[in-house]
Amino acid sequence: MITIKTSDSNFQTVFEELLNRGKMDMEHVSGIVKTIIDEIRAEKDGALLRHIAKFDRWSPSDGAELKISTSDMEEAYIALDPTLKSALHLAYDRIRAYHEKQLPRSWFDTEANGTILGQKVTPVERAGLYIPGGKAAYPSSLLMNVIPAQVAGVEKIIVCTPTPDNEPNALLLAACHLCGVSEVFKVGGASAIAAMAYGTQSIPKVDVITGPGNIFVATAKKMVFGEVNIDMIAGPSEIGVLADESANPSHIAVDLLSQAEHDEMASSILITPSQKFADECAAEIEVWLKKLPREAIARKSINDRAAIIVTSSMEEAVNLMNDIAPEHLEVATNNPFELLASIKHAGAIFLGHNTPEAIGDYVAGPNHTLPTGGTAKFYSPLGVENFMKKSSIISFSRQAINEIGEACALIAHTEGLGAHEASVRCRLDF
Fold first, then answer.
1. Whether 353 is catalytic
2. One of 51, 99, 328, 368 is an active-site residue; which one?
3. How far apart are CA 119 and CA 369, in angstroms?
4. 255-309, pLDDT tens digit by residue?
5. For the chain, which terminus, N or C, has the lower number of CB atoms within 10 Å?
6. Catalytic site residue 327?
7. End-to-end CA gap in the chain
8. Rounded CA gap, 202 and 43, in Å?
9. What SS3 string covers 176-220?
């Protein structure tokens, strides 16, 4: 882990590397992914079954074998430890309550001349959710993707999740039952994205695909965008922390590690105006590393992708963090809301000493599917609107078309579009 001051001569070089942290080398997998997509489009289930045998080490006999039964989901739910079951219900209730507040509304406005303008909001008909599976199964990701789709009113929700060796993750199945999902398929990777984008005999074509995944999944989502909508192209997880000497260095150290333990490519960045706090936090990171079950992964992430930046002021710290635009941003100061107005770019903002990023991953309520790699400058967290679309509503009365139709016809005439002009003029009173 590097510790650097903004006054150091090599700071700009180091900072540029941090800004480029999210760059994924999709080029080296794009050929493989394109082949997978092309095969799914051409052969449908035939290619899908072949890919599963190759990548997940089991050979389904037909497409019907890909679907997980609702009885298996119910059995997994019943077998849950009661305390864990209660925790999942708490998460479900809080996530749903938060996302219900996001629902966009249809609206209509009537002008004095009889013109009616408005917006009609409707859900997509089919949503495809990709959820990582196998040993790295995350039931929280299922809740975070299913619930906003349900709140939006999506009629058909399709879930694809890989099952290496044909062993579905029981906790993920239990979460599916809790959410009331019935269409769950044992398909992973780029094959799953292609199947949901184009449809096969066993997996329906969807309108939007959401959910996290590795570089193959991200590349496939990028390639099928346009055939379907997608939520975002997310890279490795990351956390940024703004802290001063009022923060607990041990707490901040483990918060930084909460992202480092995801994978070796995760980024953890602390920016502080206090050299003393920076030194204390660096020491605590080493203490915590030795306690982690995933020490090897977290240590490589910290060694290769982490940084502590010491600034001349908190204002400078905030400006640098805005340039980074982190997926998760903790503000660990006594008065964090004083800084909120200055924070322009972050996927999710965690304010105060008692708000670790991890609380947002599970039970806070807001979605944990967030923009990474600086894309928080133009992307938003996954939400209800990802599963909805808007239609403009326009209705003109005879009075209205006579009042402003001439202006419309003039613009159409200027653009050389005669049919446009005529379609308005033929309705005007002369």
1. no
2. 328
3. 27
4. 999 999 998 999 999 999 999 999 999 999 999 999 999 999 999 999 999 999 9
5. C
6. yes
7. 77
8. 12
9. HHHHCCCEEECCCHHHHHHHHHHCCCCCCCCCEEECCCCHHHHHH
